[in-house]
Write a structure and sequence with these properties.
- This protein starts with a strand and ends with a helix.
- The protein has 458 residues and is of the alpha/beta class.
- The chain has an eight-stranded mixed beta sheet with strand order 7-6-5-3-2-1-17-18, covered by helices on one side.
- 31% of the residues lie in helices and 24% in strands.
- Strand 6, helix 3 and strand 7 form a beta-alpha-beta unit.
- It has 14 helices and 22 strands.
- The longest helix is centred in the last third of the chain and has 20 residues.
- The chain folds into three domains: 271 residues, 4-Layer Sandwich (Metallo-beta-lactamase, Chain A), CATH 3.60.15.10; 118 residues, Nonspecific Lipid-transfer Protein, Chain A, CATH 3.30.1050; 41 residues.
């Protein structure tokens, strides 16, 4: 192809200008989340070769279906492009492994070839957005990102291009910890998964919000393969699900795997074969559910969680049920009537603790999480997940002083956008926390929220 792009794998774009130039989030080999995830579809040999030939690799964030160490090792020596995340954990780790790393400043266009340039945005949730101008067509790679202040800026850029493509996570929500229960043993599924709300409706809302005229399903092309997580397969999103409920007045919904020619504006559907279905035992990934926690390991777990100061102001204790035995980490000591039990294999827990990747346990959906006491409908949000997995693990902000400095740095970059994002997401958290997900009040509030976002004055 002379100039254009392919979409393959989970969240991979390959951009061409007289040959392969850029590949994004190349998860091309291996599994993710302690072996829990594999690909829904194979990456064709042609695209595998093209990805390995790209001089530039962009990585959005640290999740292993986006930052795959095994896949990076397959690629030839190249320049790794990263969002400018506060804490610089990913950049520092990759440099320590010998990679050539370039951090991209926010809102700045970088020219990669005669007809390809990119602009990157980093947000305080440690996610990254990439805008790719390919011969005057704009590809908007939102991957797993939610709008956290950058929406108005992205809308203005999109409006400068007659042809735009929005690539963004959508679906039933299995990729954000759905193996979660209340004290009665009832699973607390997100509203999308529990009611299988039409995914196409969600896509149309996102397109209208950002003013993009094409949408490509993205960043959700996986299936489960561990025997203790394969139950979650029923909540993944199939290729046929994206069109259900889609309003064509919002624009054009394209297939997930395509080749788009940016000279002729023609689209070819790629039809990669589905990944062969195989179920693996947890032991194949080092996990034995009967293993017990050693005393020094419990100390490491305790130090990890007590070092995140925010948790002590919101939770009484965490219980880690390892090998059927309870291990208590005290926090607020009875002040808040809120606690969490995590039932999880010893090996994956300690790997997550040692490497500060607790989000990998949540997303893997083999760890069983039980909420005790006063929790709203939002479950682990907003007081657990972002503070542990985003701000502490990836942003390196564990104390209250470090957290204040972390947010101050993001606010300094773009004060108005930052405050807009914080206010909007606080409002979303209130809606999610206060109203039952299957209530008419929740649906009305959610609709009002999206209408406000999509208004021209937003």
């Amino acid at each position: 192809m002379e100039v254009g792009f392919d979409t393959v794998g989970n969240a991979t774009i390959i951009a061409y200008d007289r040959g392969p130039v850029l590949v994004t989030d190349p998860w091309l080999r291996g599994s993710a989340y302690f072996g829990s995830w594999t690909f829904s579809h194979q990456v064709p040999d042609e695209q595998m070769l093209a990805a390995s030939s790209c001089p530039y690799v962009w990585v959005s964030h640290g999740h292993p279906d986006h930052l795959s160490s095994e896949s990076l090792r397959l690629l030839k020596i190249k320049t790794l492009l990263l969002p400018d995340h506060v804490g610089s954990r990913i950049a520092d780790d990759l440099r320590n492994e010998g990679y050539d790393v370039q951090v991209l400043h926010d809102k700045r266009w970088y020219k990669l070839s005669d007809r390809i340039r990119i602009l990157c945005l980093a947000d305080y949730n440690q996610d990254g957005i990439l805008l790719i101008d390919i011969n005057g067509r704009l590809v908007v790679n939102f991957n797993d990102s939610s709008e956290r202040g950058w929406g108005q800026f992205v809308r203005k850029v999109i409006q400068q291009f007659p042809i735009s493509f929005l690539l963004r996570l959508s679906g039933y929500g299995d990729a954000d910890m759905i193996n979660i229960f209340n004290e009665s043993g009832e699973r607390l599924l997100p509203v999308q998964a529990a009611h299988r709300l039409p995914v196409g409706n969600e896509i149309a809302v996102m397109m209208r919000d950002l003013r993009a005229n094409h949408f490509i399903p993205f960043s959700s092309m996986h299936r489960y393969q561990r025997s203790d997580s394969v139950w979650a397969d029923e909540h993944t999103t199939g290729l046929e699900d994206y069109a259900v409920g889609f309003d064509s007045r919002a624009g054009i919904l394209l297939p997930a795997f395509i080749r788009y020619d940016c000279l002729t504006d023609t689209c070819q559907t790629l039809n990669p074969p589905e990944q062969e279905r195989r179920i693996h035992r947890p032991e194949e990934f080092g996990d034995n559910w009967s293993d017990l926690l050693e005393a020094d390991e419990l100390l490491a777990v305790r130090n990890y969680f007590t070092g995140i100061e925010h948790l002590g102001d919101h939770f009484d204790y965490f219980n880690f049920r390892i090998g059927g035995r309870d291990n208590i980490v005290e926090l607020g000591k009875g002040k808040y009537d809120r606690a969490i039990t995590f039932a999880v294999p010893r090996n994956s827990l300690m790997t997550a603790i040692r490497h500060h990747i607790f989000d990998d346990l949540l997303i893997g959906n083999f760890m069983r999480t039980t909420l005790h006491g006063k929790f709203g409908n939002a479950g682990l949000y907003p007081d657990f997940t972002p503070y542990v997995t985003k701000y502490a693990d990836n942003g390196l902000a564990r104390s209250k002083e470090e957290l204040a400095e972390y947010f101050r740095k993001y606010m300094q970059r773009a004060p108005f956008e930052y405050l807009r994002g914080r206010v909007r997401n606080a409002a979303k958290d209130v809606i999610r926390d206060r109203f039952a997900a299957d209530s008419s009040t929740y649906r009305l509030a959610r609709r009002a929220y999206h209408l406000i976002k999509a208004s021209p004055f937003s």
